[in-house]
Amino acid sequence: MERMLEQGQRFGTLSIEELAAEADMSRGTFYSHFRDKSELVARLMSVVTDEIVDSAGTWLATREDGDRPHRKDMEATMIGVSGTFRKHRAILAAFSDLASQDPTIAALYQGMMDTICQRCRESIDAVKRAGANRPETGDDVADALSWFVVQYLGRFAPIREGAELGRLIKAVTLICEAAIFADSKD
Fold first, then answer.
1. Residue pLDDT, tens place only, 10-68
2. 9, part of any domain
3. Beta bridge pairs of residue 133
4. Which distant-in-sequence residues (6+ apart) come within 8 Å of 62 by Cβ?
5. What is d(CA 63, CA 118) in angstroms, rounded to the nearest whole number?
6. Which pick of 69, 82, 93, 140 has the fewest CB atoms within 10 Å?
């Protein structure tokens, strides 16, 4: 599916037959793995969500008591997330575009965002417990930053290269650091 979207196919017009042929399998084999195209999309969205969270490194990592992300982790997070957005640019763009038209995709996209927002909230809570946060930083900031990073990097990281991509990553890093961390360096 992702390869076909990268080649300019439209998601809504992709048939099971086309997907099965692209994967070099029969239609029956497709149905032995997926009930329908929606189940394929759900599984793909789950994989992409996991990759986004994993690519964020220590920022969205599961926390243990006393473990917290640091300001120095933010740029590595943005580099990792940008790489994932570049890798999955076609599928993420299709899902983002279709979310306003298709309730199933909207729910899957919202589920991805809920996961990212929750992990960001947990990281900010860890920064708070260490006393390294801006006093006003809370769940609303976590959610706003999560949506900003996904929308902005998702839109621009795939079309930027080299120094231009580096400046984009630095800008997003600066915005996130300024919103989360107290003025003193941690």
1. 877 889 999 999 999 999 999 999 888 878 888 888 898 899 989 988 788 766 655 67
2. no
3. 181
4. 122
5. 12
6. 140
Structure tokens at 119: 């992990």
Residue 30: inside a domain: no
The 3-state DSSP composition of the chain as helix, strand, coil percent (nearest 5) reads: 70, 0, 25
Contact 154, 92 (CB under 8 A): yes
| Residue 181 CB-density burial (10 A; 0-12 exposed, 13-18 middle, 19+ buried) | buried
Number of domain units in the chain: 1
Say which CATH number the domain at 97 has: 1.10.357.10
> What backbone phi and psi angles, to 5 degrees, belong to 156?
-105, -30
pTM of the model: 0.83
